Amino acid sequence: VQLVESGGGSVQVGGSLRLPCVASGDTIGRYCMGWFRQIPDREREGVAGIVTGGGTQYYADSVDGRFTISRDHAENTVYLQMNSLKPEDTAVYYCVTVSDGVPYDWGQGTQVTVS
Fold this sequence. Notes:
By secondary structure, the chain is mainly beta.
């Protein structure tokens, strides 16, 4: 599966961004999907996940209540809605497919800067 993220950019503290991840090569309906982020000098961390049917989502404690993951099978796209952004959310955000609980396919990432 090829994944292409977009929607990143610079935003003020308290602002919002929505990151789309468009998939090609296969339908996302077959996969659990997720978002990871890479903060400089830190390990990549899982931010959010969503099961194949979309009925259950998972969030890191640091973003719970502020971020929302969703999926649109018709558009073959996964979204990450980020609200109430903080400087510590500054990172490169990656979309992933998840297989057996492990991230498998990765997108190229999109930079989010909050200041």
